[in-house]
Write a structure and sequence with these properties.
Length: 178
């Protein structure tokens, strides 16, 4: 008594490959949906949708509008080949809330509030992320963050970071001596 797949060995009523090719061609060429392709080819819209899903053409947003080719998200071949680094500037909110809670008078600038900077590094292949919150985005902070991010990735087995891509954060472009 061994487990076996419940998938059928044959599917006698599956849409013929030639018809599936016509559905895919109409989708790429005319950018029509299942409700418009179905009557043209004499197929139910649900069948057309299933065919488009099988061929990964079910989302128009995944297609390049002029050419009709499917856009695939790029991904590096191995971990550490490319690491994305980003800095997000976030306004600090005082304890007890800001002007939404206490009114506009309380929303005036408070000395020392300022901003926090969220430093993030994401491996392009595995999509593993490392994030820290800092009070600035100066060169020394960025360098220390990259060192800790590299150590974090090394603990996960990504021993070598080949390239770093940033969103042009000033400290990562100008402040570090690479």
């Amino acid at each position: 008594l061994a487990d076996r797949s419940s998938r059928p060995l044959t599917t006698p009523h599956r849409t013929p490959p030639a018809m599936e090719a016509r559905v895919c061609d109409l989708r790429r060429a005319r950018k029509l949906g299942p409700a418009r392709i179905g009557p043209v080819l004499g197929l139910p819209a649900s069948t057309v949708h299933r065919i488009l899903t099988r061929h990964r053409l079910n989302r128009l947003a995944w297609m390049d509008r002029p050419t009709g080719t499917v856009i695939r998200r790029y991904e590096r071949e191995r971990p550490g080949e490319l690491v994305h680094v980003d800095v997000k500037k976030l306004g600090r909110i005082p304890d007890g809330g800001g002007h939404k809670v206490h009114g506009r008078e309380a929303g005036r600038p408070i000395r020392g509030m300022g901003f926090d900077y969220l430093h993030s590094a994401v491996d392009d292949h595995s999509r593993v992320a490392y994030t820290e919150i800092h009070g600035d985005e100066k060169a020394a902070t960025c360098a220390a963050f990259l060192t800790r991010a590299a150590a974090f990735f090394a603990d996960l087995g990504i021993t070598r970071i080949e390239r770093v891509l940033t969103d042009n954060a000033w400290a990562y472009r100008k402040g570090l001596a690479w």
